[in-house]
Amino acid sequence: MQLDVFTLFPDAFAWFRDQRHVANALAGGSTFETVDYRATTPLSGGQVDDTPFGGGAGMVLRVDVVEAALRARYGIDPVELRARRRVVALTPAGRLLDDALVDELAAEPALTLLCGRYEGFDERIVEHFASDAVSIGRYVLAGGELAAMVLADAVLRKLPGALGHAESAQEESFSAALERMPEYPHYTRPAEWRGWAVPDVLLSGHHARVREWRLEQSRRRAAAQD
Ligand code: ADE
After folding, report:
1. Which of 35, 139, 157, 197 is in Cβ range 3.0-4.6 Å of 21 for a Cys bridge?
2. C-beta 88 within 6 A of ligand 1
3. What's the 136 CA to ligand 1 centre distance in angstroms?
4. Using an 8 Å Cβ cutoff, are 101 and 174 in contact?
């Protein structure tokens, strides 16, 4: 996968890039690049944002600045770009990110993430340049960088070879294999600690009963979340 992140803070992604599953995905042929909106801004003094029409607090990322950055990177009109690759604007007003959307995005050959800043985007960016508007939760972050890292983390770990074992991401919380339910509890050694014993069934070596017990635990957790 070719993953590009447009941001005012490219340095914020240095730590993320070093994470093992990200490094594994990159070693497997994926790319992860940051693009600084400021590098191509058509405005003087590195300006990228402006005050909102109609008044109000904060600053809004300008549509002409984002257009210039997208054109410089891809060499085409961003309105056409979004028909060719998924362009995701990260915004608290977007579609809530869940495992099904992560699967959908992980199947794409290329993704572009647009981080907003301050009060967010001029709405024309979301309306005309983005194919998707995605939120990572019903709360507001100071910018889209952490949201972009959350999305990129969840997507990249789904790629073949990103995790140590091919099966690691198969049967996990909210996966189709677990009927979109939370994952069951895990235990490891010691089998007993301070009188807290690991459930007997897990030590029984009886695979069918283990499977049944795990599904039941997932169902209970799903019911508790509703
Ligand atoms: N930018 C600011 N808050 C956000 C959120 N909750 N999700 C995605 N992008 C954001």
Report:
1. 157
2. no
3. 6
4. no
Q: Tell me if 91 sits within 8 A of 133, measured CB to CB.
A: yes
User: What are φ and ψ of residue 148, in 5° steps?
Assistant: -65, -40
What span, in angstroms and rounded, lies between the C-alpha atoms of 153 and 211?
28
CB atoms within 10 A of CB 31: 11
- What digits encode the pLDDT tens for the residues 7-17? 999 999 999 99
Best CA proximity match to 100, nearest among 175, 3, 1, 154: 175
Q: How far is the CA of 134 from the centre of ligand 1 (A)?
A: 8
Tokens representing 36 are 């600084």
pLDDT of residue 171: 76
Return the structure tokens found at 180: 């979109």
Q: In terms of Cα–Cα distance, which of 94, 185, 76, 82 is closest to 135?
A: 94
Q: Is the pTM of this model over 0.90?
A: yes
Q: Two tokens at 127? A: 């309306």
In angstroms, the CA 120 to CA 92 distance is 9
Count CA within 13 A, CB hemisphere, residue 146.
Answer: 8
First-to-final CA distance of the chain: 34
Residue 95 C-alpha to ligand 1 middle, in angstroms? 11
| Beta carbon of 137 within 6 Å of any ligand 1 atom | yes
Local structure of 92: helix, strand or coil: strand
